[in-house]
Amino acid sequence: MVTNQPMRLDAVFGALADPTRREILLLLRRHPRPVGSLAESFPMSRPAISKHLDTLVRAGLVERIPKGRSNLCVARDAPLAEATEWLEFYRTHWEGALDRFAHLAESEEETP
To answer: How far apart are CA 46 and CA 108, in angstroms?
Structure first.
């Protein structure tokens, strides 16, 4: 489990909290795109899309690769894998705790 990067997890979950950024990530996971192409996919200005991209870049979810006079945006999987690992750890922890609680509650009901 990745425990030494809480700020990165905060950045990833913060970036994923916005529906526009999730949609940008979905588009980029299909294939890399230039910023202009991404901007055409949304009913907002190119500067607004650039701000969303900046947030995704800071979280490590997107990389901007200079290509001529523009930037190609590419989705990166590692931060999502770290977030999934963190969530999985807590999912198994709470499932186990709830199972133990259910077992305790059932044994209490059986006691006369």
So the answer is: 61
